[in-house]
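Mods, move this if it's the wrong board.
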Amino acid sequence: MGKLFDLDSPIMRALNRVADLMMLNLAVLLFVLIPFTGGASLTAMHYVLLKMVRDEETYVIKGFWKSFKQNFKQATILWLIVLAIAAIIGVDFLWIRANKTAIPGIYIYIMLGITLILYMISLYIFPLQSRFENPIKNTLKNACMFSILGLPRTVAMGVISLIPLLLLYFFDLRIVPLLIMFGFTGPAYLMALLYNGLFKRFEPKVEEVDEEERTDDDDEELQAAIKRMQEARDRK
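Not the wrong board. Structure tokens:
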């Protein structure tokens, strides 16, 4: 029974993970409610979640705040772009609703298709911002590429991301306390499990090897320089 509650036992690790997700969700919720900080908050969330998925040691709030500050400017611009596109699509659907008798049905299906594609692309924007250093243009372009390359998992991510809305639809306000604790981080954690493998394919592993090789080369050059100095001193 004692081993069951050891810090390294599966149960305790699971409970710690649940507590971390709840703490992270409260931080995300706080900054999402503040104007213009939603993008940096989502970026920081994915930064911490990816470390959780990879079992990398990290302090939730410390890691969140670190990524929040580092990515604030670019993530905020991306956030405003996403909001602007969402607003345009929303206005377009309102216009369709007001003029549905005069609009061909094909136009509605085209708009639904475009909305779905843009939504799938948006799922990768802030995870990419949290992991890769790129200009805004490249981040958006890479989000398009990743949504296509990981198409089966992209569809799964889209479904997972809608879980909070589905819970609200079926359980009304009774589910709000659960969403306050896990509404962002619960689905995002499952999404991180999906895109983690895809990200690993594009992360620069060669740099670590090059860094070790450069260190070895530097050591050899240092040893050679010391040897030359000793030889010169002996000749004197």
